[in-house]
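Posting this for the archive.
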Amino acid sequence: MVWLAALTFLVVLAQAAVAQARPESLAPLAEKISPAVVNITTTTMVEGRSLPEGIVPKGSPFEDFFREFQERHGPQDRPRRSNALGSGFVVSEDGYVVTNNHVIEGADEIRVEFFNGKELPAEVIGTDPNTDIALLKVEGDEALPFVSFADSDTARVGDWVLAMGNPLGQGFSASVGIVSARNRALTGSYDDYIQTDAAINRGNSGGPLFNMDGGVVGVNTAILSPSGGSIGIGFSMASNVVSRVVDQLKEFGETRRGWLGVRIQDVTEDVAEAMGLDKAAGALITDVLEGPAEEAGLRSGDVIVNFDGVDVSDTRALVRQVGDSEVGKSVRVVVQRDGKTRSFKIKLARREDSEDAVPAISRDQQAPLQEQGEVLGMTLRALTDDMRGELGIGGNVEGLVVFEVDGASEASEKGISSGDVITEAGQQKVTSVADLEAGIEAAKEAGRKSILLLVRRGGDPRFVALSVEDGSGAD
């Protein structure tokens, strides 16, 4: 009986702890934060639609009737107003408002409605399509209620969160759920989404996701739904990403992200084996563009393992870290090259100024030999000037053109297809089939199970590891 009483006592304590961890009501929290949450209405002038031409043939007895109808009712192609709804939240007492870029994109007029019913016009301070964030400004007669960003990195799977906004145009509404997952990526380079099962619907876009302390941990941006309504899979851009964007938009009216000047891909297990790396980690450079990395001496085939004192796990982590870095900052970049570690000091440029950057490919290569061969399930031929024109390849690129791929080969399985150009094998340049065969033999002698090929398609490079264990070079 003693043990039963003790067990009962422990159950009561556990229930008390749960009750303490989860408040009986979220009303106090909702009352505290609601004044800073806003509804956003946008108005856009769009072209009207005219009656289809030819609906009445010329000479028809109805021609005069339709002409009179159009003259009486005016032209049917006059511009008309289109309205859209979204959500947002105030982040400063002087009227800065955060929302999604897609909520206000292309709008001719933006109005912000507060919880007390007051409406104010808003102007766009700046936008960032990469993170789908926009910063607005309203002018009020008095200090406005606002909320602050919390540290989204402290949000844990299972933590309670509260979403607020204007779902389906129904006005101010709150929904509660938990953090379902962290570090979700959707489509962007800088994505860092918190997944939640708190109900998020159309109209919630741009609204805040709060923790239980009333801090904003995310901006509600997207849902996964076959029906268009909430099924418990919503995504909020993490506040640590948003706050940096907001600070830059407030200061500059635009984003200013760091830029290294490289194209990269993840280091997979087979790529790591082909390169003789100890583990599949880091970011493999597929191309060096004209810019900071080229000036510092980085090369295609280098594996970036550390950036500015932080180990690089994969390409996504590196892209975010470089983008978060200050433009003009000098950083230390550590790479693996030919089995050795090398360190470079690089001064970052601005990503937004680098859209026209081109690959910095060496121009001192010899003209390729006119030859053809079959290697690793691929029919290959040395690249000629005529082929460059057909494939849209610059004159500074040398290599082997893939003419045909055996459908049963590993090359086909890994996505190599006709029209691709192989420019490197085993991190050595190839201009002939003999170069590729020599690279395969070198890989075998080094005890490697595969060889790393640098493959270009339409100017975009990637590394592909192909097995050499079957003992085949040229067929």
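Residues 14-20, 362-370, 471-475 have pLDDT under 50 and may be disordered. DSSP finds eleven helices and 27 strands in the chain.
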